[in-house]
């Protein structure tokens, strides 16, 4: 309970808004969302068009620069990112030191924060050329770190980047290339990964982006700010839902068991994972695109029987009054885990994929923050509910 006296103590007018549910923390021109209509746009371009026609690197350029690149600009950008894909050998050494069972997100977060010690020049955030260099580096190195983390957890030797390949093909090569030197990922799988990265590239002031902005507002270097974002994404309430969807589908096991499962959800025994969203009160536009991408992926990898359960589950839920009245629709996580699994990723890598996809969004928001003259250091108020002044009690009298 908040007492009137407590409110007085915050000093002037203040709102009490835990989780900033109703408080805008910044002005931003990066991403537009209309949750009621199910609209998502990056710099004004609908996500559906970007997923169909663009590439992840082109979308990264768009997010960072505000406009789609010309052919020359895209060529230069692709060249610059490709140039920075390799890691300093000592970063590799750092990663070798992690326990064999370390979570890949923990390895990613620590290694990205360690990059700030390799590039101390990153602290000069006022220089636009320097910001360009650091953002390029980070977008280039995230897949290499993610792939090394995966190989480390498998006890396999690291595979160095192949700069002849596209961004996503190179990532798949670093992950899955074994002893056969002829490994090449199927183009349809590369395209599916490209689409998934595009869909995750930004989502305005979500928890991890808010973390990047909050830490970045102290004017620290971008590696430290993005490491904070990775930490936020690591949490199960943010990045972990697609893994929970897979577990749920496995537990349901057969379409015959769906009515019993739905009855349990309606009784409040558990949630239908991959359904519902704080912002979308309509079909999450990203879920629609992923659902379509499932067909292309399963054409290559063979059908996953869990897809049949997911499709039937969605059909039943969307006709059920419980879900309709609460505006609960599939979100981005409902189908993404199925694709990641088909691409041979173990569940603990799902959030790493999310982080690689989200990196250009984090950096676009960080850049916007750095040049925004109105932006102040993040420092919310509190409503103090503890004791007021009292005298120290000597040990013998407690
Ligand atoms: N299954 C069953 N009921 C649900 C679900 C669900 N997945 N989601 C919400 N509800 C119900 C709630 O119980 C509540 O019912 P009530 O009014 O009878 O109490 C009502 O719908 C409103 O739900 P809230 O929890 O108030 O919605 P909120 O916006 O706070 O939560 C959230 C959104 C956390 C995503 C929630 O829908 C959920 O837990 N979904 C499952 C987990 C999930 O898929 N998370 C991924 C989100 S996408 C992302 O993070 C990238």
Automatic annotation (TrEMBL):
Family matches, as PROSITE patterns: CITRATE_SYNTHASE
InterPro entries per the UniProt record, alphabetical: Citrate_synth-like_lrg_a-sub (IPR016142), Citrate_synth-like_sm_a-sub (IPR016143), Citrate_synthase (IPR002020), Citrate_synthase_AS (IPR019810), Citrate_synthase_bac-typ (IPR024176), Citrate_synthase_sf (IPR036969), Citrate_synthase_typ-I (IPR010953)
Pfam families documented for this protein: Citrate_synt (PF00285)
Annotated coiled-coil segments of the chain: none
Gene Ontology CC entries for this record: cytoplasm
The keyword Transferase is assigned to this record: yes
Keywords, in A-Z order: Transferase, Tricarboxylic acid cycle
GO molecular function: citrate synthase activity
Functional pathway: Carbohydrate metabolism; tricarboxylic acid cycle; isocitrate from oxaloacetate: step 1/2
Any one Gene Ontology BP term: monocarboxylic acid metabolic process
Similarity-based family: Belongs to the citrate synthase family.
Protein name: Citrate synthase
Lineage per the UniProt record: Bacteria, Bacillati, Actinomycetota, Actinomycetes, Propionibacteriales
């Amino acid at each position: 309970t908040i007492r009137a006296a407590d409110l007085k103590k915050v000093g002037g007018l203040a709102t009490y808004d835990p989780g900033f549910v109703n408080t805008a923390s910044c002005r931003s021109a990066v991403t537009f969302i209309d949750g009621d209509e199910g609209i998502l746009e990056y710099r004004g371009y609908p996500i559906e068009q970007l997923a169909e026609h663009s590439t992840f690197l082109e979308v990264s350029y768009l997010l960072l620069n505000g406009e789609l690149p010309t052919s020359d600009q895209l060529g230069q950008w692709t060249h610059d990112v490709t140039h920075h894909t390799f890691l300093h050998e000592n970063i590799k050494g750092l990663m070798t030191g992690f326990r064999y069972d370390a979570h890949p997100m923990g390895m990613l977060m620590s290694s990205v924060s360690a990059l700030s010690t390799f590039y101390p020049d990153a602290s000069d955030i006022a220089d636009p050329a320097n910001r360009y260099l650091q953002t390029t580096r980070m977008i280039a190195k995230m897949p290499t770190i993610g792939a090394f983390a995966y190989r480390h957890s498998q006890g396999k030797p690291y595979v160095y980047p192949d700069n002849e390949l596209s961004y996503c093909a190179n990532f798949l090569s670093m992950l899955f290339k074994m002893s056969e030197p002829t490994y090449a990922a199927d183009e349809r799988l590369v395209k599916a990964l490209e689409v998934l990265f595009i869909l995750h590239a930004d989502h305005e002031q979500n928890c991890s982006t808010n973390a990047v902005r909050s830490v970045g507002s102290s004017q620290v270097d971008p590696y430290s700010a993005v490491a904070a974002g990775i930490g936020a994404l690591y949490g199960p309430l943010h990045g972990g839902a697609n893994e929970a969807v897979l577990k749920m589908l496995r537990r349901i096991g057969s379409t015959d068991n769906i009515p019993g499962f739905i009855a349990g959800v309606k009784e409040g025994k558990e949630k239908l994972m991959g359904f519902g969203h704080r912002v979308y009160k309509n079909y999450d536009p990203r879920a629609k695109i992923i659902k379509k991408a499932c067909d292309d992926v399963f054409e290559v990898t063979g059908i996953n029987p869990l897809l049949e359960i997911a499709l039937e589950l969605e059909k039943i839920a969307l006709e059920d009054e419980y879900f309709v009245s609460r505006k609960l629709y599939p979100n981005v996580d409902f189908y993404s885990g199925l694709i990641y699994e088909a691409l041979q990723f173990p569940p603990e890598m799902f959030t790493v994929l999310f982080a690689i996809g989200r990196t250009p969004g984090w950096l676009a928001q960080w850049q916007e923050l750095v040049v925004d003259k109105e932006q102040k250091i993040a420092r919310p108020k509190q409503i103090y509910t503890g004791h007021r002044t009292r005298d120290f009690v000597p040990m013998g009298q407690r």
